[in-house]
Amino acid sequence: MALPKLNTPTYKIKLHSIDHEISYRPFLVKEEKILLMAIESKNDETMLQAIRQIINNCCTDVKKIKIESLPLFDLEYWFLHLRAKSVGESVKLMLPCAKCESNVPVDFNINDVALQLDDDHSPLVKLTDTVSIKMAYPNIKQFSSFTTQDTTKVTDKMFSLIRDCTESIIEGDKIFEAKLQTKTELDEFVQSLNQEQFRKVIGFFDTMPKLRHTLNYQCTKEGCDERTTYTIQGLENFFLSP
After folding, report:
1. Which residues contact 93 (CB under 8 A, 6 or more apart)?
2. Which residue has better confidence, 223 or 235?
3. Nearest 5°: phi and psi at 212?
4. Which of 206, 190, 210, 209 is nearest to 198 (CA)?
5. Which of 115, 114, 113, 96 shows the shortest CA–CA distance to 105?
6. CA end-to-end span of the chain, whole Å?
7. Which residues fall within 8 angstroms of residue 194, CB to CB, at 6 or more apart?
8. Which helix (H) or strand (E) holds 76?
9. Residue 38: which pLDDT band, with cuts at 50, 70 and 90?
10. Beta partners for 93?
11. Which of 95, 129, 173, 188 is deepest in the core (most CB within 10 A)?
12. Which among 80, 78, 110, 72 is positioned nearest to 209, based on CA atoms?
């Protein structure tokens, strides 16, 4: 006789890079195990891949969306709210006091966290009066390759990230799709940028949407009572362990 099946609720979320809502279910014990193993590894890349796998498992609209193509900030935002529906909306962090450096327990509600958007941000980067470059947001694979533990080739990784996130190059009314160019051609174009143009491209990454939340709290150590403002940014800082 077949065992009973448990009903699992579904929820909807609106992501920044997609114009329609996505349905998902809370993660179950099997996904919690994946998350716990990733946290125990203390490896950023392992954690990112665990997040990707959990979201892929829990997404009920897999035919409408490619998880691997989503910008990293959308995956972080989605996972944060997936954690809220699965474990609870309250997260407790141990944060430092600005004065005595004691660790202070601080609670916050996940629903208060929003993507921070920069008014000056644009995916279209103007290089000259006639030439612009249209950028795409890095996905989890591209970000993982950039944040690997090998720090000996940071410059090469940055140039590769810019190349891989180039969607098109525009000159006047001509559009050169990056996917139709070779890696060598794209590398040569990126390396031909002057310092000012390169800073403009880096500005795209610096100003793109970020998962960020500012907390204000008071030290609980006797005799201190210092008030501290602390900003957490990126999923790894939200301590999303169940």
Report:
1. 105, 106, 107, 108, 215, 232, 238, 239
2. 223
3. -145, 145
4. 190
5. 96
6. 34
7. none
8. helix 72-86
9. confident
10. 106
11. 95
12. 72
